[in-house]
Q: What sequence folds into this?
């Protein structure tokens, strides 16, 4: 084997080694990602009764709508209290005068 062939073989061997290391890292990352996905799906199933992404999006939209409704209701309730308090203060001030 010539010197140039030996050098080419060494370069190819190094290249293979680098690619193999990348493959191993990619496989490890894939396994970790799959493990995390499995855990998140299990958590979603336990918490929300489903791990289907579209169903979860629908549930989130429903929860956000309910929160918005509660916020509006709460704001109206506070405004009613403020109005009633202002009426009481007005009546008190009229009675004192």
A:
């Amino acid at each position: 084997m010539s010197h140039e062939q030996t050098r080419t073989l060494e370069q190819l061997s190094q290249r293979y080694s680098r690619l193999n290391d990348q493959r191993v890292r990619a496989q490890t990352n894939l396994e970790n990602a799959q493990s995390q996905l499995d855990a998140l799906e299990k958590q979603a199933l336990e918490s929300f009764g489903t791990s289907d992404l579209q169903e979860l999006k629908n549930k989130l939209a429903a929860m956000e709508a309910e929160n918005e409704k509660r916020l509006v209701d709460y704001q109206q309730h506070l405004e009613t209290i403020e109005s009633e308090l202002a009426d009481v203060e007005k009546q008190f001030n009229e009675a004192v005068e």
About this structure: Residues 46 and 94 are 60 Å apart (CA to CA). The chain has two helices and no strands. The chain has a mean pLDDT of 95.
